[in-house]
Specification:
Blueprint: E1 14-15, H1 18-28, E2 35-39, H2 47-53, E3 57-61, H3 64-73, E4 79-83, E5 98-103, H4 109-117, E6 123-131, H5 132-139, H6 149-157, E7 158-166, E8 171-172, E9 179-186, H7 197-208, H8 215-218, H9 225-231, H10 244-254
Parallel strand pairs: 2-3, 2-5, 3-4, 5-6
Antiparallel strand pairs: 1-8, 6-9, 7-9
Helix pairs in contact: 4-6, 6-10, 7-10
The chain binds S-adenosylmethionine.
S-adenosylmethionine binds at residues 10-15, 39-43, 45-46, 60-63, 66, 85-87, 103, 105, 108.
Length: 255
């Protein structure tokens, strides 16, 4: 692996499948002046083909050895390296109309997705490789067992599209799980109708805190009997039965 030992704690599984790499680049379709930010460039599997099509690339990387390699390979005029933890990185500091891409470290994918989702206002689109199971939860619809907090919070802000299935053999070392590439495109501001997003987040978190329980139990003390009746939401529903729109209506009722 180009003299680098993959670090498990940084979720390092390096893409080595040229067919998958070119499918990802085609899906992103980078244009010279785009502001592209790659999370976790690693050994450069996606980085190199991206740079061939871009004037400049921003990367966020935590592994010091990999950062040292990147610095040697790419002059600052072509690449800005943001050293550190993507979970704590302020993506808005780069600018707006950002195109975020990455084969994300699976060990932190859920908190990272929540962090990235908060930058919806400065993002044009996002293309991420993730554990297939996570993508299944992201795109799940109400009534499906995969429908969860991350489905609601991402679908509230983004249009999601499942793009490519990727088997373990496409990586070195191969992960123990299947992977998939997903695209997220921010919804129009007009579509984001929660009066208070913190309230929406709180309601969704509370409802899914015990996913087998009925809303009557989980939202007890949050939504009154009158509230349920007025919104036309049955207290016997479980969290996966409630649509994204209905979560927004509950949050707005409580705001
Ligand atoms: N992009 C490369 C590829 O496709 O072969 C590497 C992908 S590897 C799955 C994940 C990358 O994210 C590694 O380079 C790893 O060092 C980096 N990484 C892990 N945790 C990170 C974090 N918290 N912040 C920024 N980068 C991180």
């Amino acid at each position: 692996m180009k003299g680098h030992v993959a670090r498990k704690r940084f979720g390092q599984n390096f893409l080595v499948d040229d067919g998958i790499i070119s499918a990802i680049i085609s899906a992103i379709d980078p244009q010279r002046g785009d502001t592209v930010v790659e999370i976790g460039p690693g050994l450069g599997a996606i980085t190199e083909p991206l740079m061939a099509r871009l004037d400049h690339l921003h990367v966020v990387e935590i592994d010091r050895d990999l950062i040292a390699r990147l610095k040697k390979q790419h002059p600052p005029a072509r690449m800005t390296i943001h050293e550190g933890d993507a979970l704590a990185f302020d993506f808005a500091s780069i600018g707006n109309d950002l195109r975020l891409v990455g084969n994300l470290p699976y060990n932190i994918s859920t908190p990272l997705l929540f962090h990235l989702a908060s930058y919806v206002g400065v993002v044009r689109d996002m293309h991420f490789m993730l554990q297939k199971e996570v993508v299944e939860r992201m795109v799940a619809v109400p009534g499906e067992s995969d429908f969860s907090r991350i489905s609601v919070m991402l679908q509230y802000r983004f249009h999601l599209e499942w793009l490519i299935d990727v088997p373990p053999e496409s990586f070195d070392p191969p992960p123990k799980v299947q992977s998939a590439v997903v695209r997220l495109i921010p919804k129009d501001v007009a579509e984001l109708t929660a009066k208070n997003e913190a309230k929406l987040s709180q309601v969704v978190q509370t409802a899914f805190s015990q996913r087998r329980k009925m809303l009557r139990n989980t939202l007890k003390g949050t939504l009154s009997d009158e509230g349920f009746a007025e919104l036309g939401i049955l207290p016997t529903w479980r969290p996966e039965d409630v649509s994204v729109e209905d979560y927004v209506r509950i949050a707005n009722y409580l705001t």
